[in-house]
Structures are given as structure tokens and as C-alpha cells.
Hints:
The structure is a single chain. The chain is α+β, with helices and mostly antiparallel strands. The protein has helices at 53-56, 65-75, 86-99, 102-121, 128-149, 154-166, and strands at 7-10, 14-26, 29-38, 46-49, 59-61. A five-stranded antiparallel β-sheet has the order 4-3-2-1-5. Helix 4 packs across helix 5. It starts with 6 loop residues before the first strand and ends with a helix. The relative contact order is 0.13.
Amino acid sequence: MFQINAVVVYGTQGVCKIAGTEExxxxxxxxxxxxxKPVNDPGSTFFLPADNELVLKKMRRLLTKEEIHxxxxxxxxxxxxxxENENGRKELYKKVLAExxxxxxxxxxxxxxxxxxxxxxxxxxxxISDEHFxxxxxxxLYNEFQYVLDIKNKADLITYIFKRxxxx
Length: 168
């Protein structure tokens, strides 16, 4: 299970430190909660019910450096995840973000990026929903990558990723 002071990823909130546990009274019943502090926003706090399996499934351990490097090395080979039907695409992308699977996030980012380039070549903009999905997926991946690799900003991380891809 999760321990106090452990650093975890919590859903779309990103990398968080488990600051402790607290008992809170809800509806006259006392319940135990994990107290999470996002590392990039220590002023925020999340309270997760320690007995709610659905909520706790969104909390997971961080990837290791080796796992991140393996993911980066697979980026060029990954197919993209695109659905022409906008409603179908929205449903798929919501599911990908909710599940947080790293390979699917990479596939989603690749698909939206490629579609963005196509739209720009036509003198058009990307749909706003696709922009939001792109930013959320990037944030989920980059937040964890930056923390584990100890890279301070997104620009440096992108440079790091591209250099890694060039070595292949």
C-alpha cells in the first residue's frame, strides 16, 4: 500500500507527495483519508478516502528512470491513436486520460500533433477539444518525466526527449 512521504502519481493531478493521513467525520462517520500535496503546487491539497478503491486506483507509483527511457525509446515506433468521428475521439481520449496508460498517452499526443500539422497546412486550427486533450496528456507525461529525471522545466525536457530520440 502507500506510505506517508511516498511520491506518487494521482490521476490527472500529476506527481504528489503523500503528506499524511487524517480522520474526518463525514455524515457522522469517521473515515481515514490520504493527504496528497501536488509537488508543482504545494498550496493545493487533496484528501482521498483510504477505503475507496475507485479513487485509490487513480494513485500509482512513479515510473523509474529506466522505465521512462524505455518509453522514450519506443516513442518513434508507437502508432498514433486517432478516431475521425469527433464524439468517438472525445470518448476515447477521456478514457485514455482517466486510465493514464503511458503508451496510449504517447499515441494520443502523436495523433493530435500530426492532425494539428495537417490542419495548419490547410490554414485551419485544431479543434479546441483536441487542444485540451493534447495539453492534458502532455501534462500527465511531462509532469512525471520531469520529476523522475530531475529536469526543471518543460523546454529542457523536450530537448532531452528529442536528443534521446536522435540517438536511435
